Amino acid sequence: MEMRPARWDMATLERLRGRLAELKVQYFLESRIAEDNRFKEYQAAVVIQSAFRGCRVRAYMRYLNSMMTVIQKWWRGYLARKYFRDQVKTAHFIMKMNFYNEMAVRIQKRWRGYYGRKYVHNYYAWKKYLEAVAIKGHIVRKELDEYADMLAKEKVKKELELAEERKNYRARKMHYLLSTEQVAGIYNSPYRQYPDEMEFRLQRAQPLSHKERTSKKDDGGDTSDWSDCRIRFTFPTMQPLPPIGKKKVQGPFRDTAEVLQQRYKPLDATLRMATSISTVEEARGELKRQEWSKVIHDDAFFPGAALRCDWLLLGFLRRVRWVNPDVFAGFGEHSPGF
Questions:
Q1: For 295-307, how does the pLDDT look when each residue is reduced to its tens digit (9 = 90+)?
Q2: What is the DSSP code (8-state) at residue 329?
Q3: How far is the C-alpha of 69 from the C-alpha of 78, rounded, in Å?
Q4: H or E element: which one contains 149?
Q5: 113: three-class secondary structure by DSSP
Q6: Where, by residue number, does the polypeptide cross the bilayer (predicted)?
Q7: What is the full DSSP assignment across 10-76?
Q8: 6-18 and 20-115 helices, crossing angle to 10°
Q9: In the list 25, 81, 207, 231, which could disulfide-bond 175, CB 3.0-4.6 Å?
Q10: How far apart are CA 286 and CA 292, in angstroms?
Q11: Every domain of the chain and the residues it spans
Q12: Which residues contact 241 (CB under 8 A, 6 or more apart)?
């Protein structure tokens, strides 16, 4: 603190004493103004403090948020790295298992092929068997071809014989058209160099008498329909080829003749089909007609019979009402006799 001379202090004090009244008034005014503005300044101070404290809290919250963001970032990174490591381990394990399965399948395939070729399917025996089957098939096909040729020749021969028989029968039937010495027949035309073949057949044939004329036969065989279930059919059975040392084929295979016999067996009507649908109703109607026609009342009529029946009916209805009152609930309480 700066030291001043004593005369300066006394002068200053004297000067202040001269201004004391003015200073009192000024102090009073300043105090009054301060008292008037004290509530406003208090409110302003509160606003300033609240703003400052809000800024400080918000800054602290921003700091906490930044710290939480860092913590979450590190934690999520740790979880993602852990999940990725798990996924990599799982993918590596699946890849190893697939590789092991593929190698196991290859080993099993090689082993099963070796075992089957050595113990189950003998290659050379199977080859010999197939060669034998091929030779036998060639022989069977050759025999079948010969048999088919023989059947075709027999069929042609039979058709020729049948045609020849028909021509001979026609010649015998038309013997009256034979040429005579006076009149030439229709098959011996004078405009031809040689007669027709039918003319020579008529010359060789004997005339057909009326007794030998029979009804025309049907050459188509049996015309019965297989769908008619009243006729029993017989089907030829063919013996199978001899076995060739192979196991029988498993399965529900049956003989063709047996299947056809079962399919076209005669119809056997059941009891339901043999009887009529309205048999029961007809029997009931017949019984009812007999009852109404044969019912005869021999009892003589007397006046008290009707009254006795009414009393019996009334007693029966009373017993029914006592056992089950709901039956007569709709009749009311004032029904007569109840």
A1: 554 555 444 444 4
A2: T
A3: 14
A4: helix 123-173
A5: helix
A6: none
A7: HHHHHHHHHTHHHHHHHHHHHHHHHHHHHHHHHHHHHHHHHHHHHHHHHHHHHHHHHHHHHHHHHHH
A8: 100
A9: 207
A10: 10
A11: 20-120, 123-211
A12: 140
The residue type found at 276 is S
Lowest mean pLDDT among 131-135, 158-162, 278-282: 278-282
Q: For residues 204 and 189, is the Cβ–Cβ distance under 8 A?
A: no
User: What local confidence, expressed as pLDDT, does residue 34 receive?
Assistant: 82
Q: What is the mean pLDDT of residues 194-212?
A: 82
Whole-prediction pTM value? 0.29
Q: Single out the residue of 174, 169, 203 nearest to residue 195, CA to CA.
A: 203
User: For residue 334, what are the CA distances in angstroms to 48, 83, 329, 330, 337?
Assistant: 101, 91, 11, 11, 9
User: Phi and psi (nearest 5°) for 78?
Assistant: -65, -45
- Sequence-distant (6+) residues with CB within 8 A of 43 are none
Which tokens is 4 given? 């001043």
Kindly state the helix (H) or strand (E) to which residue 260 belongs, with its residue range.
Answer: helix 256-263
